[in-house]
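U., I forgot to send this yesterday:
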Amino acid sequence: MQSLIPLAEKIAGVLIERREAIAIAESSTGGLIAAALLAVPGASAYFVGGAVIYTKTSRLALLGIGDAEMAGLRPSTENYSLLLARRVRERHGTTWGLGETGAAGPTGNRYGDAAGHTCIAITGAVERAITLETASADRPANMEAFAKRALELLLEAVSAQR
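Result:
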């Protein structure tokens, strides 16, 4: 996680300066994105909350996303990551929302995505969604790579709005 902190510090600086806040809904990163942001002293000034949305049960309980909203939508896609980001932002009343979903490994997920696949979305003044494929089955390395790319995307988004 040490490699994530410099990015988190840059994000924290921008959010604190502008008095903006973020909420996180992550899956295959297992909380690493939130942990990196919370590792920065003064995180309560910009980090409102978040959740690891790892199952259908947690998706419904924590974000209120049920079967009706999932009709025609497949997890582990950019559209699904956008839904997570929008919903966590809305539920927490924050300036920014981040959603992440994927398959860390060592095998792929039940939706047909290979290990090393993630989709990350940012919502706020700008909205972006990306897909990252690491082509690796190394679960811990993928989790860190996914979290790093999520923080990079977040920094790009909050910096673009300046």
